[in-house]
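User: Show me a protein chain along with its predicted structure.
Assistant: Here is one chain, sequence first, then structure tokens.
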Amino acid sequence: MGKAQDKLVDGLYGLGWAGVKKLPEPAAVALGRKIADVAWKRRGKSVLRLESNLARVVPDATPERLRELSHAGMRSYMRYWMESFRLPTMDPKRFSTDVRFQDENLLREALATGRGVIVALPHLANWDLAGAWAIGHIGVPFTTVAERLKPESLYDRFVAYRESLGMEVLPHSGGAAFGTLARRLRSGGMVCLVADRDLSASGVEVDFFGARTRMPAGPALLAQQTGAVLLPATLHYGDTPVMHGRIHPEVEVPGTGTRTEKTSVMTQALADAFAWGIAAHPEDWHMLQRLWLDDLEERP
């Protein structure tokens, strides 16, 4: 991406942050749906990739059903962006009313142990809103990591935005993030990681909807190294402004096996929890990129 394109992309995101958060909420909702509908009708690469991914999640879906799901998926994706642009100006009291978690007690009980807590989520609904809920409703700040976006100024915007909500944000690149996360956990803190896609060589192969993909080893390795509680969480939207979530039971460290074997078992358990949430609400899974290994092999 050249410097001129960098400036254009950053300018567009800056316009979103500056403009959308000033809109009345109904206007922001309507704008998001309009943008989603236009993008979906154009049938671009992202929409086609979303449909391809959804075809694995809902293997018996007809082409018409897949188009319905991808349409709903694009609306869900744009709802995420409209909410995210508006989050810094949202009344914190709404985090208790607009976000509701099933089995919230599992998170509270894990935090009470003092062992530290790792919450691992897939790209479902609005994970930033879930983070704001944890800070505003549970009263616990947390640490997360963010991929270094291009241009750098865009990455800085994302970091500043998330820090304004009370999150500590570490860059994904470099080796320092893991050590910092481990220190936060050993002091009884909370770490939240979006963990359903890692196509690097360090990713752990898992079975996901009947095919192989890779997911990050970090959550499982952190739990092994620090003794922290590892909790999967899944999210979904409804027909109202309320976002729903579920805290899943702890993924425990196996009693036997090598570190690699334990990491494989634990990451597969995360994948299974993610698959449960995605299968229940496929339209809220914002996976517009290649994910499965055999899809990567299609490339020339």
